[in-house]
Design brief:
Oligomer: single chain
Radius of gyration: 22 Å
Low-confidence stretches: 22-31, 237-251
Order of helices and strands: HEHEEHEHEEEEE
Strand content: 15-25%
Helix content: 10-25%
Number of helices: 4
Shape: globular
Distance between the termini: 77 Å
Strand order of the largest sheet: 3-2-4-5-1-6-7-8-9
Mean pLDDT: 83
Largest sheet: 9 strands, mixed
Length: 251
């Protein structure tokens, strides 16, 4: 039977491990966190983990564009204190001014375009060691466990958040040392006042893996400069059942 003293030691060790992985208790200054609602409840202490590595799987161009929009919303929170971030890629399709629609100032982002994956990984690791950055985004296809572990160790020392946008990965289910694995898919937008056109960006957010947490599927949109949930489009109200009086077979 575990004594009260051993239980207290175990609790402190778990708290230290969680803190090293970016899971820190919520404070008053954090307010509503990243505004992700029920998604944040999937993480230890109900806090979106910063100072760690997240990976986003994008199997096609549509998923990649959706992931970039979702990431832009996260950057608005990560860089709210005026810090800068690096966006490292090979074939960048992102249009920087579009980030303003998600409350992110593109002038706070340094874009670096490289050709070889090994160059992207090296620059990403070195950037993650720079404590003055709020975040480092790297666009790559695949990454093995050893490479992801190097990036994770860098974040644990600097507390800089790393986001890996894996476009068209060949080995999407490969093991990595990342704290969370996401898959963002686009959803049809809702008509505004019944008028056809482009509405608020909407996503199906699949949290595939969380260290010491639980995954799940969520539906969220960007509305009024913040994340907000919307009703699952797969939900359909059941038709109302009308009871009819019984009738005999004979007159």
């Amino acid at each position: 039977m575990m004594t009260a003293e051993k239980q207290e030691i175990l609790t402190k060790l778990r708290a230290q491990i969680s803190a090293a992985q970016g899971f820190k208790p919520a404070t008053h200054a954090q307010g509503d966190g990243f505004g992700l609602g029920k998604i944040e409840a999937c993480f230890p202490n109900n806090v979106f983990p910063i100072g760690t590595i997240h990976e986003f799987l994008a199997e096609n161009a549509e998923d990649a564009a959706a992931s970039e929009g979702f990431i832009a919303g996260l950057l608005a929170k990560l860089m709210e204190n005026g810090s800068s971030c690096l966006w490292i890629s090979r074939n960048r399709k992102l249009f920087p001014p579009s980030l303003e629609a998600f409350g992110t100032d593109p002038q706070q982002i340094i874009f670096i375009d490289l050709y070889y994956t090994k160059e992207i990984l090296w620059v990403t690791e070195e950037a993650l060691k720079c404590e003055g950055l709020a975040c480092v985004i790297a666009e790559i296809s695949d990454i093995d466990f050893a490479q992801s572990r190097r990036l994770q160790l860098a974040t644990e020392k600097s507390h800089v958040t790393g986001l890996l946008l894996r476009k068209e990965p060949k080995h999407s289910l490969s093991a990595t040392a990342c704290t969370a694995r996401w898959q963002i898919r686009p959803q049809p937008t809702a008509l505004i006042n019944g008028i056809p056109g482009v509405g608020n960006p909407r996503w199906e957010v699949n949290l595939l893996k969380v260290k010491n947490g639980e995954g799940g599927k969520f539906y969220i949109e960007w509305a009024e400069d913040r994340f907000a949930p919307f009703k699952n489009p797969e939900y359909r109200a059941q038709p109302e059942t009308i009871s009819l009086p019984e009738r005999g077979l004979t007159a």
